[in-house]
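ok new one. same drill as before - structure tokens go in, u give me an amino acid for every spot. 286 of them this time. try not to just spam alanines like last time pls lmao
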């Protein structure tokens, strides 16, 4: 879950036709705002379509940064950055406030909402929603998944409880010594799978807002070098928004010789929040 906060790109949510770009009244807090925050990660569960091994846990990593919004911030889009100080390699971390651009914390607060991942996390609409990005990327191996989108809440003085905002599709792939350089999942403009989403921290509901780079209907694995498929499954994972993906969703495998092999879903499949959906093993044969 690595992210360099200096490279994050600012987004303007007030131009997205979204409500709540400012709070009308200043809220009075009951406890001082801390410069150190603790945060834990709830682990995703596994939905068994086919048997599989337990997933690699989601851990905090060195350099992780979370975005925090306090209920007493006078502007509903205010974001404060906290960077992991201790707890790398575990599910419980301590984060220290980063004073980017002279950022000033409110004096007191009653509650907070927090987000992880995406080019920017911005809270709005009366402290109940935020914006997160679903990456347009497929990862080889669960431990290579970066920036798994999460949202969290906490009452004053309590640790932040982060939970997964989206789900994961596990795609095991075999082949008879076939070398592949790319995998593209395409929902063919049926269900948005990548881009910017609203996340309601109270209900966990996600709503598509807009695409970013590339298509909103595709996620892609593009290896730096070709991967040779064998009888032993190679595991690929796609972080996907919650929803039912229709029959007709395709996986296109690009071979090292430039040819392609297309596999088409014969029935719908459903991705649930904070769950790993094990899809049937796909055999890629020339």
């Amino acid at each position: 879950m690595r992210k360099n906060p200096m490279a994050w790109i600012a987004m303007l949510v007030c131009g997205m036709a979204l409500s709540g770009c400012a709070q009308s009244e200043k809220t009075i807090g009951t406890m001082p705002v801390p410069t150190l925050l603790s945060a834990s990660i709830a682990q995703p569960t596994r939905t068994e379509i086919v048997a599989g091994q337990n997933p690699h846990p989601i851990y905090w990593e060195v350099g992780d940064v979370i975005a925090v919004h306090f209920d007493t911030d006078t502007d509903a889009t205010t974001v404060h950055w906290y960077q992991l100080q201790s707890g790398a390699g575990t599910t419980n971390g301590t984060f220290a406030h980063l004073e980017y651009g002279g950022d000033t914390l409110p004096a007191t607060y009653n509650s907070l909402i927090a987000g992880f991942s995406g080019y920017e996390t911005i809270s709005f609409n009366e402290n109940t929603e935020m914006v997160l990005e679903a990456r347009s990327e497929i990862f080889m191996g669960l431990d290579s998944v970066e920036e798994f989108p999460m949202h969290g809440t906490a009452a004053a003085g309590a640790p932040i409880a982060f939970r997964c905002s989206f789900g994961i599709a596990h795609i095991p792939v075999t082949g008879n010594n076939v070398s592949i350089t790319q995998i593209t999942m395409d929902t063919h403009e049926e269900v948005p799978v990548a881009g910017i989403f609203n996340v309601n921290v109270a209900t966990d509901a996600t709503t598509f807002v807009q695409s970013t780079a590339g298509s909103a209907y595709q996620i892609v694995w593009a290896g730096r070098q070709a991967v040779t498929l064998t009888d032993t499954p190679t595991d690929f994972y796609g972080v996907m928004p919650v929803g039912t993906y229709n029959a007709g969703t395709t996986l296109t495998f690009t071979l090292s010789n430039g040819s392609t092999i297309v596999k088409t879903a014969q029935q719908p499949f459903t991705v649930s929040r904070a769950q790993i959906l094990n899809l049937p093993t796909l055999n890629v044969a020339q």
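Residues 2-24 have pLDDT under 50 and may be disordered. and btw The longest strand covers residues 218-229.
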